[in-house]
Automatic annotation (TrEMBL), chain B:
The keyword Oxidoreductase applies. Keywords: FAD, Flavoprotein, Oxidoreductase. It comes from Ruegeria sediminis. The keyword Oxidoreductase applies. This is FAD-binding protein.
Amino acid sequence: MKMLRPETEAELAEMVAGLNAPVRIAGGGTRGVAGPENALSAAGLSGIVHYEPGALTLVARAGTPLAGIEAALEAEGQRLAFEPMDHRGLLDTGGEPTIGGVVAANVSGPRRVQAGACRDFLLGVRFVDGSGQILKNGGRVMKNVTGYDLVKLMAGSWGTLGVLSEVSLKVLPQAETAETITVAVPDAGAAIRVLSAGLGSPFEVSGAAYDPASGGALLRIEGFADSVSYRAERLEALLRPHGDVGRDGESAELWRAIRDVDAFRGRAGDVWRISVKPSDAPEIAARAEAEGLLFDWGGGLIWALVAGGTDLRARLGAFQGHATLVRASVPTFAALGRFQPEGAAVAALSKGLRQKFDPRGVFNPGLMG
Amino acid sequence: MDMPKPDPAVLARKATVLERLKEVLPEDAVIHDEAETRAYECDALTAYKCPPMLVVLPASTQEVSDVLRICHEEGVPVVPRGSGTSLAGGALPTADCVILGVARMNGVLETDYDNRFIRVQTGRTNLSVTGAVEEEDFFFAPDPSSQLACAIAGNIAMNSGGAHCLKYGVTTNNLLGVTLVLMDGTVAEIGGAHLDAGGLDLLGVICGSEGQLGVVTEATLRILRKPEGARPVLMGFDDNEVAGQCVSDIIKSGILPVAIEFMDRLCIRACENFAHAGYPDCEALLIVEVEGSEAEIDSQLAKIIEIARRHNPVELRESQSAEESAKIWLGRKSAFGAMGQINDYMCLDGTIPVSSLPTVLRRIGELSKEYGLAVGNVFHAGDGNMHPLILFDANKPGDLEKCEAFGAEILKLCVDAGGCLTGEHGVGIEKRDLMLYQYAAGDLEAQMAVKDVFDPSWLLNPAKVFPLSASESRRMARMAAE
C-alpha cells in the first residue's frame, strides 16, 4: 500500500496529474471508505487560512483537523451549525476527522433539520480535478450566484469529482443555552407525530430525535436563556396531549450520542442510514426488521442496525428516499454498494459529471456508481 | 451588449418548427404572430430587447418535454422564462429562439404540513406559494423584492434570495426536489420530501444554473411555520461607514436578526416619497428585524439597540404596530420602483464580506463623482449583498455606456474586496463578460463542462452566464452539426 501525502495544493495537483492508477481519497481516514490499495491523503494540507468572526466566515485547508476548527470557533463563541457527526465510535476507526472529509461526505448532525446540512454552510471550494487542474468555485461571502454552484456539487461527492484542497464555510454564533423536552411515547408512529408537531411549531426546534430503546421523543431548543425558557414552556404545553412530558436540561452529551449513533457502538451488524419523508419513517423502519433503530431529523433520518450482509434495500422495496450503507464488511460494500442506485436519467447525469471531472477514473472508482 | 447572430438555418425552418409545436400543444399555447411575440422581447433588464422567433406556453411536464424534444431535434435554441422579472437579462430572447414560458403551470400539487413541504408547478409566483399555506400559518422563506410577480421557476434558475435570507437562507437552502426536463425531453425526478441527495447533489447545481441545464416544471419546497411575531427597528445614522460598522457589531454579538437592510440618503428619500413609511431624513438607514414572541422581540431588540447606541444614531425607532411594520417593508421592497421614478437606473448585485462595507461604500462614492452619475445604495447588509443603483438618462447618448462602465468598476471592486459579481440576481447577459474577472478560464471551463453533460448541444439559454468568447466553440459546434 502506498500513501501519497502532498503538503501543498500545487504538490497535490502534481501528484494527481502523475497518477497512473486509481487511488482512494482520504482525509483523516475516519469514515471507513474502502477502495483502491493506494491512497491520496489531503491531511497534509492543513491550517486555517482566514477566520473573520464579524463576517461569520472561516476558510481552511481541507486537511485541517475538525477539532482545531471547532476550538478556533469556540474561542469566538461560534460554531459549525450543522453539527458534523464523528464516525469514529460507530465505525471503530482511528485518526483525526478533517474538515475536508466532513465536506466531501456532507456530514451533518441533528441540527440539520433546522439549520441545514453541511452543504448549506459551504460557501466556496478549491479542489484538484482528475486531470490535475486546480479549480475554484464560490467564495467566502454568504450570497453568491456567480456562475454554477459547483460548491454544492462538491459537498457529498466523496472525492469522486476532485480532491478538495480548501473549503470556505459560513459559521454561526453558539447558543447561549439549550433545553431538551422529552415526551414518553409508545411507538415510532406516536414519536414521529410528536416530532412533527414540534418542528411545525413556531418554537424553532433544533433537534428532533427518537430512540426506541429509551421510549422518548426528544426535542431540543437553543438560544438566549429567557427565550429558551419561554419556548420550552410553550412546547411542553403543545406536546402534553401526546404523552408524559419532561425536561432533560442542556443535554449536550445526549445530543452528541444521537449525532454519533452511540446506540449501535460496539454492536455487531451492518449500519444503514435511510433518508425518508418523516411520516413514512415508521412503516419503512418496520420493513427494515432491524435489530436496532434510531430516528433523527424528525423521523427523516433512520439509522438501522441489521445482520451483516443483509440487503436492506431489497427488504425496503420501493420508497421515496434512499438508503446508504455506512458500516459493513468490504465484501458487503462491494456487493451492495454504499449508495442507493439512482434512476436511469439521474444516473446518466451523475456518470456524465464523473467522466468530465475525473476522465481517467482515478478518484475512488466505483464508490458512487 | 453583444448577442450571437441568429442562426439563418433555424430562422429558415420557422414554419416547420411551428407546425411541429402545434401538433403537441393547444392552439393558444403557441405564439408566432410578431405583434404578440414582441411581448416577450425583454425581461426586467429593459435596456436590451429582441423579439423571439416563437413563444410556447405549455401547461404540463409532458408538454414541456414534447416542446424540448422537438426543439432538440430541430436544433432550435430555447430560452426558458418564468415571469420575466430577471434583472440580469436571464430571459432575454435571441431572434432564432423559442421562448418557453411556464406561466400556465401555476398549480399547487401537494401541501403537507406534517412533513413541512409544498409541491408546486413552477409557474406559480413566489408570494402565492406562501399564499397557499398561510391559512395554516406556514410560509415559504425566500422573499425576493419581486415576489408578487416572480415565478418559482425563476427563483430556482437564479437561486433567488431576499431580505430575510440572513436567517432562512436562499432558494437552494429551501428547495427539496425538482422535476427537471432535459433538452432532449428526458424527465428526471431529483430529490423529494426527504432530505439530502443520495448520490451527487444535482439539485444543488441545478439551482442557480440560469435555465441552462434543464427546465424545472415542478418543485418540492420547504415550508416553515411562521414565527409568533416580527418587529423591525429603524436606525438612522449620519454616516454610511458608521452604519456599516454597526451591522458588523450586531452580527458579532451573537444575535442573528432575520434581516438587516441598508439604505442611503438617495434611496431613503425615494422610498419615503413612494411608501410614506416614516423613514428618518439621514445619510444611512438600517432596518433590523427580529422574530419571536413579544417578550423575545423586546429582549432581542434591547440588545440590538444597545449596540446601535454606541454608534450615535440620529434616530432609533421600533415599529409600534403591524401596520407600521408593513409600511416599513413596503418602502424597502419598493426601492427599485421608487428609484425608477427619479430616473432610469441600473441595479447591481455584488456581494462583499460584511467587514468591507465601509471601504466599499466610500469607494463607490468616489467613483460616482468620477463618472458624474448618482448612485443610490440599498441592500441586504447582514449578508453583504449590495444593490447600488446607478442613475442615468437612457435618452442621453452615451449615458448607458458610461453607466455600464461604472457598474463594471463597482463589481470589480466587490471581487477585489473578496466578494463576487452577483449575490442573487444571476449573471444573465449583464455580468457575463465580467466572469473572467472572478474566475480563471479553467474554472469557467469546469462550469461549462457541467452544461455539456446536461445539454450537450448547448441549446438551452446558450448565450448567457459565460463570456461569449468562452462559450463560442461549444455554440458553434452545435450550429456546425446541423
